[in-house]
């Protein structure tokens, strides 16, 4: 037998390609698109009885992040809540009109998710809720962590 | 002379260059790894708010602490809950109607006490409360508020549904009651 020269060696790339594709599939399945709308730096209160949101509508809920300083963020950028909520409500009404969904008694059939830092005061939360109410949002979901952690 | 014979490929066989595909696959993998953010384990307390014109103006219970809101008649089935807080945002007392149920910090024992009191009220069929109005101090921290909301949502209505009709109003400090409330 003669020694095989490195010149003619061709590694079989098929197994590594299989493995890489499996990893890609895994990451594609667990990718969290909603994470972009969440401010993960917030420290939410921990309450084990919080439940997943019961909403099966086609349109995405409005998510508002309230940081410890009382600022409101949406999709990672600070927003002026006085302008942002009316604008979102206006856009939602247009979308509902396009979908042919009726707005009954002025109530927008999409929930608002409020993710507030645990140290935010009640006055700030109430201000946001009032604003949402005034624009026709009636379903308000207050977020909490179901388990403690970092 | 090597005796190894190279297998001659049939003329129809095409060998794909996997290196290029592997490069692309690694790039995709790198992208997904770098953008991977596991979803936090979050839950929600789903509430159903009344229209803004139907917010409670004044508590049904006779109290010296006025609340801020739009002038409108109160709901007859509304249970008023008054939550006072100190400068640190912690609960100092909780009054249900006219009865002070919690005095001091809202610890686990106080939460159980409040829950038991509300359960007692909700089991009285003669008083079918279908809404809870939380009058809270503006300094109250969100964490403490959520504890109160948690207890409220544990209550069940006579038809077996979960209590979701919870409204919020700001409880003014009696010392500053004459001053206009700024939400």
Largest interface in this structure: A-B, 62 and 53 residues
Percent of residues in helices of chain A: 25-40%
Order of helices and strands of chain B: HEEEEEHEHE
Taken from the alpha-carbon principal axes, the silhouette of chain B is: elongated
Q: Output the CATH class name of the domain at 76-174 in chain B.
A: Alpha Beta
What is the CATH class designation of chain A?
A: Alpha Beta
| Biggest pleated sheet of chain A | 5 strands, mixed
Radius of gyration of chain B: 30 Å
Number of distinct beta strands of chain A = 5
The helix/strand series of chain A, from N terminus to C terminus, equals HEEEHEHE
Q: How far do the termini of chain A sit from each other?
A: 61 Å
Percent of residues in helices of chain B = 25-40%
Q: Which assembly state applies to the chains in this document? A: heterodimer
Describe the protein in words.
The complex is a heterodimer of chains A (150) and B (183). Chain A is built from three helices and five strands. Chain A is of the alpha/beta class and 150 residues long. Chain A is elongated, with a radius of gyration of 24 Å. Chain B is an alpha/beta fold and 183 residues long. Chain B has helices at residues 18-34, 108-123, 142-154; strands at residues 42-48, 67-68, 78-85, 91-96, 99-103, 131-137, 166-171. In chain B, strands 2-7-6-3-4-5 form a six-stranded mixed beta sheet, covered by helices on one side. Strand 5 (139-145) of chain A pairs antiparallel with strand 1 of chain B, so a sheet runs across the interface.
Please outline what is shown here:
Chain A is 33% helix and 15% strand. Chain A is α/β, with parallel strands linked by helices and 150 residues long. In chain A, strand 1 and strand 2 form a beta hairpin.
């Amino acid at each position: 037998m003669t020694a095989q020269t490195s010149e003619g060696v061709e590694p079989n790339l098929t197994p590594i390609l299989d493995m890489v594709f499996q990893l890609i599939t895994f990451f594609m399945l667990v990718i969290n698109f909603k994470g972009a709308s969440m401010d993960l730096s917030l420290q939410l209160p921990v309450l084990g009885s919080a439940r997943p949101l019961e909403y099966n509508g086609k349109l995405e809920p409005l998510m508002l992040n309230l940081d410890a300083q009382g600022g409101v963020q949406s999709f990672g950028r600070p927003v002026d809540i006085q302008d942002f909520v009316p604008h979102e409500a206006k856009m939602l009404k247009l979308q509902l009109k396009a979908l042919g969904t009726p707005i009954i008694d002025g109530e927008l059939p999409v929930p608002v998710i409020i993710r507030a830092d645990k140290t935010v005061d009640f006055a700030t939360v109430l201000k946001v809720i009032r604003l949402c109410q005034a624009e026709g949002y009636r379903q308000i979901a207050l977020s909490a962590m179901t388990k403690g952690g970092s | 002379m090597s005796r190894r014979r190279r297998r001659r490929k049939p003329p129809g066989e095409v060998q794909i260059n996997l290196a290029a595909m592997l490069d692309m696959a690694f790039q995709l993998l790198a992208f997904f790894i770098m953008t991977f953010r596991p979803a936090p384990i979050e839950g929600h307390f789903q509430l159903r708010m009344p229209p803004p014109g139907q917010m409670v103006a004044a508590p049904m219970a006779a109290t010296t602490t006025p609340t801020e809101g739009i002038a409108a008649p109160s709901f007859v089935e509304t249970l008023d809950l008054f939550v006072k807080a100190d400068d640190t945002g912690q609960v100092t007392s909780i009054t249900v109607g006219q009865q002070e149920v919690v005095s001091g910090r809202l610890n686990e024992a106080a939460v159980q006490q409040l829950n038991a009191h509300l359960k007692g009220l909700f089991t009285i069929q003669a008083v079918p409360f279908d809404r809870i109005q939380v009058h809270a101090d503006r300094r109250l921290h969100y964490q403490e508020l959520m504890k109160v909301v948690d207890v409220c949502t544990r209550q069940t209505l006579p038809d077996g549904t979960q209590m979701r009709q919870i409204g919020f109003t700001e409880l003014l400090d009696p010392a500053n009651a004459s001053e206009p409330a700024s939400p």
